[in-house]
Amino acid sequence: MSSLPEIANPQRKPYASDLSDAEWEVLKPLLPAPKGFGHPVEVDFREILNAIFYVQRTGCQWEMLPHDLPPYTTVYGYFQKWQRKGIWQQIHDQVRQKLRRELGRDEHSTVAIADSQSVKTTEKKGRSTVSMVAKRLKGVSAI
């Protein structure tokens, strides 16, 4: 069983982080449309998303993107632009609302979970640690 997404017409060998055709159909209408003026868009937004997801999935630096993906300057430029304009948050909210609607749930979540686990120390231990550090500092200064 392959972990590679199913793509009808791949222009290159797919990566595990690539969008499948079904995922692309969900995200395609959520991306910003060209303005209609100025320099025409010459990049494939699907490949831009594939490159962004590649960086996110592998943790590599932008400059280390494989050569069969768009240039990292282009990819990072779109990533920053969409971050600045709030596109990522809009995509997240719309996909979440659509999924909740399909599951028959309220579109807006009404539950929040907070993890309050923390490392606790006793009062005594805290004081003793401070006094030990002070004693060590006195010993160092005496030398």
Automatic annotation (TrEMBL):
**Insertion element IS402-like domain sequence ranges:** 19-92
InterPro entries in UniProt: IS402-like_dom
Protein name as annotated:
Transposase
Q: Which NCBIfam families match?
A: transpos_IS5_3 (NF033580)
Organism of origin is: Fischerella thermalis JSC-11
